[in-house]
Amino acid sequence: MNEKPLTSLSGYVLLLVAIVCLFSSTAVAWANLNVFVAALLFLTAIVLFIGITVINPNEAVVCTFFGDYVGTMKQNGLRWVNPLYSKKKISLRARNLNGQTIKVNDKMGNPIEIAAVVVWQVSDTAKALFDVDNYQTFVQIQSEAAVRFLTSSHAYDNMEDEHETVTLRDNTGQINKFLEQELDERLSQAGVRVMEARISHLAYAPEIAGAMLQRQQATAVVSARKQIVEGAVGMVEMALARLAEKDVVQLDEERKAAMVSNLLVVLCGEKSVSPVVNAGTLYN
């Protein structure tokens, strides 16, 4: 069911007419002029009062006539419609849904804790009221389902799969975009528009947090040592090349190996190396 506009009359004029009818009926009854006219004026005033409704900014009134959807009024102010219409107000303001932290397994099967914040508003009042049972509960449940689906479709990080291009931790912008698209598809049937969706909490579950922290530290150490070794090898190559170019000293293979070993120890060692003067020879 799609929303359709409902034309309404200005309530200020009809409110004035209702007040006039009410006072007129009182005056006629007080003067004992005509009981029928007094009753007719009184009933007219009551009907006019019933048809008047107040619509606040960013608010709509959905009208039905004996179970049949008539339309939605969105004009602000004092409005008047058929008094036989059943009227239900619905807010069009933006709302925040602060999702609870849930535990879900990511694509690699690791349990993680995740939560999301969703900013949404009603865009189609007819769908919100008539296509779902309770649109607010529907938004809450579908938001949690979308977060679970997103988590199970992506890895927390790419430690286990180097080819994983989009991860929950490293690609926050893309993940938030995917979440918005998933929520739009799920909530469109309830007449709800998602204005913004973002991950508000992301962490490993407590039972594996310690192990994953050690793994991340080990990965960082290995990466750092790899950079150090690559730099040290480059410096050794440069030192040997410069010695050969300047013809400072002639080194055979054994002396080159000893020099490379010493340079790598100095360059790759975690602590400062104490120099030792070798007064002997490498050869017996």
TrEMBL record:
Location of the Band domain: 50-216
Coiled coil spans: none
Subcellular location: Membrane
InterPro entries, A to Z: Band_7, Band_7/SPFH_dom_sf
Transmembrane segments: 12-30, 36-55
Membrane topology annotation: Single-pass membrane protein
Keyword line: Membrane, Transmembrane, Transmembrane helix
Gene Ontology CC terms: membrane
Annotated protein name in UniProt: SPFH domain-containing protein
Originating organism: Spirosoma sordidisoli
